[in-house]
Each structure stands twice: as structure tokens, then as C-alpha cells.
Amino acid sequence: MQTGIFSPELPPGHVEFCVISDVHIANDEGDTSRMFTTQSRNDYVFAKNKSQSPISGEAYTLKRFCEKVNWSGRLGHFDDGQHILILLGDIVNGECGYFASYNSVAYKMLSSSFLPWVHTGNIIYVAGNHDKEAKFYSTLTNFPRLAIIEGAYTKCGIVFQHGHQFDFLCNGRNALGLLGEFASNVVVKLFPPKVEDLMRGRDFYYNHSDNNKQRSTRSLIEQASLQTMSGDNKRVAENALKELKKRGNCHTIICGHTHQSPVQITVGAGASGRLTYINTGKFARDGYINVVCRRDRNGDWELA
């Protein structure tokens, strides 16, 4: 039986989000921007004939996801107001050239799966640091400008934000940030992903090009704590939770950016309220995640 990207049955009064981030679609050859290595993070490589058959593991993952999005659209999920697809940043890889990324087989396949239902307002593109020019290129992508969010998107008490805003190596808000962004770009250009991950304190990069073709495209979110995190992961989580606390009327913040496996961290309890941080992981490795919200007895939104 064919299944979409959402739960088969969703109770009334509930809203379900499907979230993907850090897809990093490059050109049709993958990420060719690194100078001294052939190892790539972006191996969405398809056959160059009209069949568009996947060659790499990442390409299989993307094609299966697109098929699920198509099926959800046919089932009317995007029309009922209870189902929302969030593209949470870094959908393309800017270092390879935006024109090449948006013209690639991979992006065309992804966009054709959701564009028929963008008009419903239930498909949102939150720009990340790699696709920060997405709004400028909306004519090329056919994605409506109004559906591209440059900062944060808030719905049902959840803040959706890519996460680079909470990473001083990428936000460029001060001299350290500008220097960090420059250094980060140098590392990306010169070194293979494993070295970049080691310097950033991330889990080691895993190449899925040779992975099995039937791997699930949905990830379950694991419970974690700040004490078990380090590097980019901990820095982004801590700063995201600080931002969430400032907002007051929101209970959860969902980010990508760090490429860690999908995790959920909950802090606080009792009268002070609980705040939750969720990270989506990296699409090529982790696929997509689902988050469901409902109204409590007081009519406020909470995680189901």
C-alpha cells in the first residue's frame, strides 16, 4: 500500500508537520566545489538519460520521498489545513552555483512533487545559510516569493528556523562571526567532509552512496540532553532554547543546520513551562521527521 509523508489517520484538532532540512542539492555531478578531494556531501546523482533513474543512495532516498509527497497531495493532505510540509533550509548547495543547483535533476524532481500544492499555503520554504538566495531565485525555482521565509516561521506554537542564526560560525553578526564564516568556507573548499565534521564536533559524515535502496525515508526522533552534546550541536541547541524562551508564547523550536541525527531536548517543567528543541538531522542520511501538535484543555497548542 502506498503511503504519504503524513500519518494515515490524524484526529480532529491536530496538526501534523513533515520537516526536511539540509538536503544540499548540488549540480548533477554532486558537489564539485571541494578542491583537494572527490568526497562529497551531495551525491544526488541520477542517470543522464530521460529515465532519471537514481544511481546513488542519496538519489534513491530523494526519489522515494518525492513519491510520498506526490501521494500525500493526491490524498488531499495539503488541502485540509491539518498537514504542513516544511523545507527547513539548505535545500540547495550554494557553493556549487545556484543556477546549477536549481536546474539539477534532483531539485526539479523535488519541486515537481510539491509545486502543485504550494498554492494551499501549507508548503513553506525556510531559507538556510546555503540557500539564502532562494528568494532571489524564486523565478527560477517557480516557488512563490511569499512562501519563502528568510527568518523564522511560527505555527501552532512551534518556531521553525534553520539554525545558522544560532551558530556564530555562520551568522556573521560580529567580527568573530564574519571570521568564522570565512574560515568555515575555507574548510568546506579545501577538506573532505570527515575533516569538516571533526573540526565542528559533529558525528562523522557517512556516505550513503552504497547504502541499500530500501532504507526508510522517515526518522524517529531520539530523546537527548544538552549534557550529551558538543560542538555545533550544543551551541545551536542552547542558543535556540534561549530564543524560544524570549518568545514566551511558543513551546517548541525546530532547527536543522548541524547535521546531527534527529534529537529532541526538553527543558523546564511545572509552572515555568516546558520548552522543547528538535533537530531534523541531515536529509540524505536521516530523511524526514514528523511532529504533531494538538490543543490542550485550555486551548493552547502542545506537542502530541
Structural features, described:
This protein has 304 residues and is α/β, with parallel strands linked by helices. It has one domain (14-303): 4-Layer Sandwich (Purple Acid Phosphatase, chain A, domain 2), CATH 3.60.21. The protein is 28% helix and 17% strand. It has helices spanning 57-74, 98-102, 105-114, 138-141, 168-171, 175-190, 193-200, 231-247, 283-286, and strands spanning 14-20, 83-87, 123-126, 148-149, 152-155, 158-161, 222-223, 252-255, 263-267, 275-279, 289-295, 301-303. The protein contains nine helices and twelve strands. The two termini are 26 Å apart. The model is unreliable at 174-178 and 204-213 (pLDDT under 50). The chain is globular. α1 (57-74) runs parallel beside α3. The strands form two sheets. It has a six-stranded mixed sheet with strand order 4-3-2-1-11-12, with no helix packed on it. It has a six-stranded mixed sheet with strand order 5-6-8-10-9-7, covered by helices on one side.
Task: Describe the structure in brief.
The protein has one domain (14-303): Purple Acid Phosphatase, chain A, domain 2, CATH 3.60.21.
List the SSEs and their pairings.
Blueprint: E1 14-20, H1 57-74, E2 83-87, H2 98-102, H3 105-114, E3 123-126, H4 138-141, E4 148-149, E5 152-155, E6 158-161, H5 168-171, H6 175-190, H7 193-200, E7 222-223, H8 231-247, E8 252-255, E9 263-267, E10 275-279, H9 283-286, E11 289-295, E12 301-303
Parallel strand pairs: 1-2, 2-3, 3-4, 6-8, 7-9, 8-10
Antiparallel strand pairs: 1-11, 5-6, 9-10, 11-12
